Amino acid sequence: MQVRFGVSVDPWTEVLPLIGSKNGLAHIPFAYMNPGDAAVIPDPGYLAYLGGVTLAGGEPHLVPLRPENDFLIPLDEVPESVAKRTKLLYLNYPNNPTAAIAPDDYYEHALQFCVERRAVLLQDNAYSEIAFDGYRPRSILEFDGAREVAVEFHSLSKTYNMTGWRLGWVAGNRDVIAALSKVKSFMDTGQYLGIQAAGVAALESWQEWVPGNVATFRGVRDAGVRGLREAGFDATEPKATMYLWVPVPGSETSHGFASRALQQEGVIVMPGAALGAGGEGFFRVALTVSEERMLEATERLGRLLD
Length: 306
Hints:
By secondary structure, the chain is of the alpha/beta class. The protein folds into 2 domains: 1-201, Aspartate Aminotransferase, domain 2 (3-Layer(aba) Sandwich), CATH 3.40.640.10; 211-303, Aspartate Aminotransferase, domain 1 (Alpha-Beta Complex). The protein has 13 helices and 10 strands. The protein has helices at 2-5, 21-27, 29-32, 47-55, 80-83, 104-117, 146-149, 156-159, 174-187, 193-204, 206-231, 254-265, 291-303; strands at residues 15-18, 38-43, 59-64, 86-91, 120-124, 150-155, 168-172, 243-247, 270-271, 282-286. The strands form 2 sheets. Strands 1-7-6-5-4-2-3 form a 7-stranded mixed sheet. Helix 6 links the parallel strand 4 (86-91) and strand 5. Helix 2 runs parallel beside helix 4 (47-55) and helix 11 (206-231) runs parallel beside helix 13. The protein is globular, with a radius of gyration of 19 Å. The N and C termini lie far apart (49 Å).
């Protein structure tokens, strides 16, 4: 946190290791949700947010992420009947699945929203290191007053290609960290020490290794965007994440398009609606293949438009 963001945190009271960031994102509602309490959640979004709030007995308030709002949660449009009961606000920028990024003034507005309502801001920053074209995602903890209301979740899965190793951490407000630690003490233990040692090695390689990994993602991004555009899709270049968020052509549903892509052309894409009703009208492409395979996939997808 210090090297990357210039943020100092107390390792004993302001940081908590997690068995993957999902482990914390899904468990933290158990520390804050009582009957009648609400959580503001992006739609589409990582389903751990919705699942954790629902299992904890809270009321999820899903807010569609739409292009007219730059795929940001329009906090001013959250009904006051919900806002006054809000205990948790989930943010995820750079965003999965839309690949959207949030400007500084949006973070400042979100922090003020939480201060006024005594809510906790949960920033899922899993994609902080996968950014392109000179863009450098910030930590929410860089902003004035953030430690009063916010914590930030990080994952080794995306940055270090360690999906399945289940290793991450959360940092920020010490009271929130203590509350999550108490919940976790009843629900799980720590990650195997061998995995933790591998995580330390990964973090120590950040300066030397991560730029090359990002360059690989950038090459696949460029190939995917170029191929999709040539095939007839309205594809835009994201500044961050490992995804492309592409409008489904015509009036076809995202599930219908994804099904045709698989059955007719052997290409797997994620239908936007699979991550929430707010994702209808889009499909997600993951930048997890070679440039050559991505170009072949975009060519096949183009045949669906013929």
